[in-house]
Amino acid sequence: MKILCISCDLYNLDKNTIGINKKLLGERVNKFYCLDCLAGYLDTSIEDLLEKIEEFKEEGCKLFE
């Protein structure tokens, strides 16, 4: 299934991008932001989001590859 960013229509969001949306916005969300739009929405940087993704991976979170 191809998933679009709800803000900029970026096509085919990857599993980690979907995972960080669910982790930060709630597992029940069904509309997703690309990393750039999510960073803007949360008033943070893409680098911070990528660091969080790596932290969650290291913790063994199943939302990430």
Which secondary structure elements does this structure contain, and how are they paired or packed?
Layout: H1 15-25, H2 35-42, H3 46-58
Characterize the structure shown.
- By secondary structure, the protein is mainly alpha-helical.
- It has one domain (1-65).
- The protein contains 3 helices and no strands.
Key structural traits:
65 residues; mainly alpha
Number of helical stretches of at least 4 residues: 3
* Count of extended strands: 0
Strand content: under 5%
The SSE order reads HHH
Low-pLDDT residue intervals, each spanning 5 or more residues: none
Mean pLDDT value? 94
Q: Helix coverage percent of residues?
A: 40-55%
Summary, kept brief:
This protein is mostly helical and 65 residues long. Helix content is 49%, strand content 0%.
